[in-house]
Amino acid sequence: MKYLDEFSNPELASKLVDQIHAATSGEWAMMEVCGGQTHSIIRHGIDQLLPDSIELIHGPGCPVCVTPLEMIDKALAIAEQPGVIFCSFGDMLRVPGSGKDLFRIKSAGADVRVVYSPLDALNLARDNPDKQVVFFGIGFETTAPANAMTVYQAQRLGVPNFSLLVSHVLVPPAIAAIMESPTCRVQAFLAAGHVCSVMGTSEYPPLAAKYEVPIVVTGFEPLDILEGIRRTVLQLESGRYELENAYPRAVRDEGNPAAMAMLRDVFEITDRAWRGIGMIPGSGWKLSSRYAEFDAEERFSVTDIHTAESSVCRSGEVLQGLIKPHECEAFGNECTPRNPLGATMVSSEGACAAYYTYRRLDLPTPTVREPAGTRG
Amino acid sequence: MCLAVPGRVLALSEQDGTTMAEVDFGGVRKDVCCEYVPQVSTGDYVMVHVGFAIQMLDEESALKTLAEFDNLGILEEEFGDQFALAAKQAGMSNPGAPDDQGNGARP
Amino acid sequence: MAEPDTAPIDLDGWVCPAPLRDSPTIVMGHGGGGALSAELVEHLFLPGFGPAAADVQLGDSAIVDVGGTRLAFSTDSYVVRPMFFPGGSIGDLAVHGTVNDLAMAGATPLVLSTAFILEEGTDLADIGRVAEAMGAAASAAGVRLVTGDTKVVDSGHGDKVFVNTAGIGLVPDGVDLRPDAAQVGDAVIVSGDIGVHGVAVMSSREGLEFETSIESDTAPLHGLVAAMLETGARLRVLRDPTRGGVAASLNEIAKASGVGVELTERELPIPQPVRDACGLLGLDPLYVANEGKLVAFVAAEDAELVLEAMRRHEYGKGASLVGTCVEAHPGMVVARTGLGGTRVVDLPLGEQLPRIC
How far apart are CA C340 and CA A12, in angstroms? Predict the structure, then answer.
């Protein structure tokens, strides 16, 4: 693909890696916010190319991982109702709720469909007027414009059998929450490139100043990530803490005004409980009152949800960068992509899944314990 | 997260009062909603996420960035601190670097 | 029964020995050709069959000795949706799939049976097209369709057309290809572009439609295999990487043979349109199905000889050396990335799903 493949060029990657090595003398811990960046780092082995003194802490930028458990359970409850076609991105299908997941209820007969775009769900609603079509609207600011437009169209075109189950999360409050944490080790952030394509960069200079952390807007291809790291190291080495845009081809300071206007109309800020982290005030979006009729939470009475998180799962600590996946006792034992205890092991860019899938080879062997229950 | 990929706009159209485009991703084509990039014209590149163009791709900027990567290290080798470079490559500390009191730094 | 693409269970990622504890019912992943499928066989079917399955062979086909003559016997069922896709139909897959399973054992395919389960209400014209496709594919491959069966199920209980084919082939003397035969040092070869069939099918699947020039690579491979055998090279294992892609096949062979496999990503023949489609949907070409390709494990010294013979054949033009068998990490497949890092190429779980993240 043009303007994509060139950013994996191995020769240029080599140059960037050399520059990073040349520039690094201190020990630095930086966090890449976005799960897609984590995926790219592990997939291409980028962390293996960096100096040992640079640590990449994998951030909570995996909307799949941080979607509140209660929201997953609501999704399951709605999807199990007769006459409902429940649509979702593929990422959400195997995220464990309190004991079940969408994949499992699909095999039990629920009409759960994977779509590429929320517009596909709207079209399904128009093609199936006798069914209730619900779309699971998760994601960061990157995905919110798509969900917003879909609801806007549903209202404009009059598609009453469509509704949206909204669980959007926002990056800047997450950065603040991470920096406020007493155990925080993060000294710099690689900000999420595509979030900034939509929202621009204006929310970040105040964060950089307040917490004295460099924030470098970074893309997703190997060269983009290496460049983000390079610029971050230069800032750290010289004691600067500024916002920089290392992804100018897709990010403008002003963001996308048309998208932001739609977001202001369709969504309003709300508190959101991030799975594994806890309540972060003002860190989410819900449908604004103008669009309340399309809110799936209102349309389907999904009360009486009792959530039950695995007591063993430490995905919260992983999401905050406090432990690495392989430092969790359950990693590779009870918890594998086959049988995930938490969302970080399910999502393809959850840190635990990434480590398990791509990195098992290099990690210290997890302690294999005797299985609970009888064998043989 | 946010798998967004660059594609080239082949043709624009209106569907149900919405601006849509046929976008080419190097041979794979898909219909994409372009309501968020009202300034788009045929031949432009856009970043596409879940069926929506979320931003224009600045081609000039892309090429400039690649050229910058290609030139990395060249300027430094020409004009840069050769001692620092050599020391780094040898895994040693820079003999010309400032000591803890900030003395001896090279300009 | 010869379930394609199965392997001994990987116990590393397992704690509880209870079979299929994840779910008491069948899930889509059980048909994906990956770990779940393997478990269904190992922990449900085989124990259920008991002593009658004592001789089961877990390769693509079973070799049965009949009075000194070795026959290869294989069966496969086709449930692909949509029925017609760019480059072919369920009919082509049904013939080529079983022909290829036989070919992977080095056998010359002779005869096929065809069994249909048809959904009430399916267009007769569609079934006619499928039958014609099967006839054409069989003739082109030089196999006869000798027996069959037809059943009809209530509307809403089929996926329009399910096809099963079973085939018998003749294994030449001295040919012994087995999944556990790979050795440290062996060369790993793929016969051409990977990820083609899966992308072609996905492009016409509802909800994901996209336009692409890619057409399915469905093809019979017994001629290619014969050409490879003719060189006299030491072929260890052949496998056609259908569901689960090249990743699934390499993992199964690595586990069965107890060797590690090291791939060099840069050497993988992935056509640009496949890269683009996978980039768009967030998929990895190593996990995408192929229907006209094979992977071969060959003694290292014979690799060039085999590659030359393959490239001279219609279905082996893009043959590439993509990896090697190593002593390290037995049972695991590891790839050297374009940037020089490494990553594990795991056995896929179930089906790959498009992702947004």
Answer: 13
